[in-house]
Amino acid sequence: MNYFYFDGGRSIDYGIRISKEATLSAPERDVEVFSVPGRSGELVIDKGRFGPQLVTYEAFFRCPDGERAAYARRIKSWLLGVSGYRELADTYDRQYYRMARYSGALDIEAVGRRFGKLDLSFSCQPFRLRQDGRVLRELPLESTVYNPEDWPSKPYFKLYGDGDIRLAVGGRVWQFSGVSGYIEVDSEIMETHKGLLPQNSKKTGDSYPELA
Questions:
Q1: Is there a contact between 41 and 35 (Cβ–Cβ < 8 Å)?
Q2: N- to C-terminal Cα distance for the chain?
Q3: What global pTM score does this model have?
Q4: Higher per-residue confidence, 152 vs 115
Q5: What separation in angstroms does the CA of 13 have from each of 17, 62, 116, 131?
Q6: In a designed cystine with 63, which of 71, 102, 161, 208 is the match (CB 3.0 to 4.6 A)?
């Protein structure tokens, strides 16, 4: 039977197995559609982003006779006890994970004395992430990095050096002045920092690097 991981916990440790695979859907592009008097068709304004994606698992859990209520309390504490986005992955596709938060209620349908059925819904960031993409790779100067996926990615760089550093990605250039030791460039959160210290004032160049 298949199972999922969420916030560092495995569903099988709570007695939960997935009985039906989540639909392999894609996120919806965020656009506004307008009707303009005197103009046929529609005017579409693309906001350049995707909305969140809902991932639902049909699941069941099995427990010792008479302990269904205790198991249900543990499950609710695990899924409802955290706020914000956490890692979500499953055994259907071990190469990827998502950033997700549990959404909606948690209703458990009793089946016999030892089983319960439940639908588990997670609100996810629109794109899945590669498991191997979280591994930092040390690269020499003048290195070339390629994105193996079909969608653009927002990389993280940790640039080592002192003085002024130049970063070129996809034909665009960013300058970082007065660097001492290293500087971090995180395109996902659009921040330049060194540890917990903001370093945005040392960056010259619009927006942040993106791997096509």
A1: no
A2: 37
A3: 0.77
A4: 152
A5: 10, 11, 15, 22
A6: 71
